[in-house]
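ok so for the tutorial part 2 we go from a plain amino acid sequence to predicted structure tokens. step 1 is just haveing the sequence, like this:
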Amino acid sequence: MKPLSLERLAGTTVVKTGRVAQGSTLDIPATSPLWLWLTEGRARRMDSRSREREAIRAPEIYPVDSSVRLECLEDCTYVLLEPGKDPLGFGERVHGYHVMMEERNRAVGKALAQGLTLRGGQIWVDVGTGTGAMVEALRETAQEPLWVFGVDQARRMIQHAWERQDPSFSAWYIERDVLRLPWPTAMLDGVTALLVLHLVEDIDPLLHRIFRALKPGGTFAYAVSADGNPFVRMIMRQLNGPGDFFQRGQKRIHDALLRTGFQIGATAVYRDEIRVDSPEAMRALIQSIGGPASRGLRDDVSPPPVVERVFDLVWAFKPGSF
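step 2 — the prediction. this is what the tokens look like for a chain of 322 residues:
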């Protein structure tokens, strides 16, 4: 598992600190997602789910999404952290996102929704719902009433979604980290994820929860930034610091999906184009989409006024039948 950057410590909460002597072990239960920060020493980390042992050394930080045993090869000092509520920084930029990106992204969601079989009374969950663009796409596409729940950990995004909610549509927005939210078993008809999976650092725990929650035959539909997306390449050229905001390419997501047990039903490519009046307008657009803006933008690189966006749309399903 790839360690997290020390820069990610901002906004986290310390849950526990301690020291483990050489040759001793520390068991960390999977009560909720945590980060393990090894501040001193060297150890082996064993995940209860994969049973794989991995060597780690200070000052590395690792996500803990299942029970972990830490075997210290020398005296170790550790910190257990609770991740921040909005680590990607979307909440503080909700107004800019609404003005510049929401309508564009809702069009991507509409293309994704049009590939779904929506029936009255179905239960759907939209993960990383943001301001509810995908929920709106489901509402506009469904011919019969659905039950839809949008989940996001960015409070201001959720508040915005509630404020613009259509009262005639049965949708609820939940302010929670999807990895902390209790998931049902074999209860959901479908799950959507609009332009969020390529932001997820460790995608396997999320996919396992989605798979377990779906009924046999249930649908998981998602849209992600395509590998080589010109829009993403443009953003990376503008960033101050390492350009690792988009953590996972489509192939890695596809492999994780199959590893979880999903089967691919259909795929498509969605293309659109962003046109603005000036480099300043393009910089403002980049700053509206959360994570990149937290790194700051370079002044010595001028962004183009026109850039293509390319997304992969995937409709997968849990084997079985309703």
